Amino acid sequence: MHITTTDPAHSGVFQVTSLAQLAHALAEALKTNSTLITMDLQKNSIGDNGVQSLAEALKTNSSLAILDLQYNTTGDKGAQAQQQVSQCMIEY
Question: What total number of domains does the chain contain?
Answer without folding.
Answer: 1
